[in-house]
Amino acid sequence: ETGVTQTPRHLVMGMTNKKSLKCEQHLGHNAMYWYKQSAKKPLELMFVYSLEERVENNSVPSRFSPECPNSSHLFLHLHTLQPEDSALYLCASSQDNGAYNEQFFGPGTRLTVL
Amino acid sequence: ELKVEQNPLFLSMQEGKNYTIYCNYSTTSDRLYWYRQDPGKSLESLFVLLSNGAVKQEGRLMASLDTKARLSTLHITAAVHDLSATYFCAVDIWTDKLIFGTGTRLQVFP
Question: Using the beta-carbon criterion (under 8 Å), do A107 and B97 form an inter-chain contact?
Fold first, then answer.
């Protein structure tokens, strides 16, 4: 496996379900990100982890809970979601070396909340 | 509030024509990135621009950065159908964050 992988690629869940999204990066990077992409909206940054510490939480509702057990893995735990949470969830990673912060994206998880 | 605006939001152009996508941002930054996204797919990194006056070219695409004007451009030369996609600029504000523009959806027709 190379690059950034995400599973599952598609997920349909009811509002009372609990599910998790998984992201894995094989690039040796030290930072990982969750983004939400909805139709007709700019990419929204949700969470940032740098060296496994959460450094940014962009006022995301508590029904989204991130977890970063190590520098290669990132999870997004979902519970009691709303239909408006249906979107493409993208994971990204980068090596923030102080010079630049080019982010590399995974294929995304298309989430539908019924 | 930091804003990153792209225009146009939608561009329909004929094969063989030239056009430019503009990315304006509202804060000081000398690091900017361009990404491409195909429908239903993820974002692919195209260009990394790291200083005022930086210019990068790949095939029919050329990107430039003017940090004084807070403007980046993505120029398309002799468009082909394969370039149809949505293009995003993203401004690096010297934190762990990238601020993405609204995206420009490009459609190239014969």
Answer: no
Nearest alpha-carbon partner for A96 in A53, A55, A50? A50
Mean pLDDT, 10 residues at a time, chain B of 110 residues: 91 95 91 93 92 94 96 97 96 80 94
User: CA–CA separation, B8 vs B10, rounded Å?
Assistant: 5
Question: Coil, strand or helix: which one is B20?
Answer: strand
Nearest residue of B to residue A42 by CA position?
B102
SS3 A59: coil
Tell which residue, A79, A108, A68, has the closest CA to residue A19: A79
Pick A100's closest partner by Cβ from B4, B92, B101: B92
**Contact between B44 and A105 using a beta-carbon 8 Å cutoff:** yes
Q: What part of B 71-90 touches A (C-beta under 8 Å)?
A: 88, 90
Q: Does B43 touch chain A (CB under 8 A)?
A: yes
List Cβ neighbours of A61 (8 Å cut-off, separation of 6 or more): none
| Residue A1 in this model has a pLDDT that exceeds 60 | no
**Looking at the complex, does the CB of residue A52 fall below 8 Å from at least one CB of chain B?**
no
Is B51 within 8 Å of chain A by CB?
no
Q: Tell me: the pLDDT tens digits for A6-40?
A: 999 999 998 888 999 999 999 999 999 999 999 87
Burial class of A109 by CB neighbour count within 10 A (0 to 12, 13 to 18, 19+):
buried
